[in-house]
Amino acid sequence: MYIENKSGQLQGSAGIQGPAVIGRVTFSQTRRTLYYQGRQLKKVGNGYKYNHVDEQTGEHFWISGPKKNGADGLYGYRPVPIDDDVREEYWTSIRKQPDKKSSKVT
Question: Count of domains in the chain?
Fold first, then answer.
C-alpha cells in the first residue's frame, strides 16, 4: 500500500505532502482498520485529504493501493521509498518492471 502521513508536515509548513512509503499492511476482520509497523490506522469517511487516522496519535494518513503507473500519492507521482519486504513484489507484480527490483525508491 501507499502510506502517506498527512500530519508529518514540517513545523510551520503549509505543504500538502507528508512523508510517504510503499509498505505491506494487514487488515482487521472488518477491513476498517489497517495495521502498519505497530500502528492501527482506522478508516474515516469524511477526512479532508486523508482517509485514515492513527488510533493512538490522531495523525492523519492517506492510504491507497499502489498503482501500476507509480502515481500513488493523492497528488500523483513523486519518488517514495519502498520497504525492503515488499520491494521485489512491488516492481515485479505491480509495476511490471522486474529489472528495477533492486531499486529502493519508486
Answer: 1
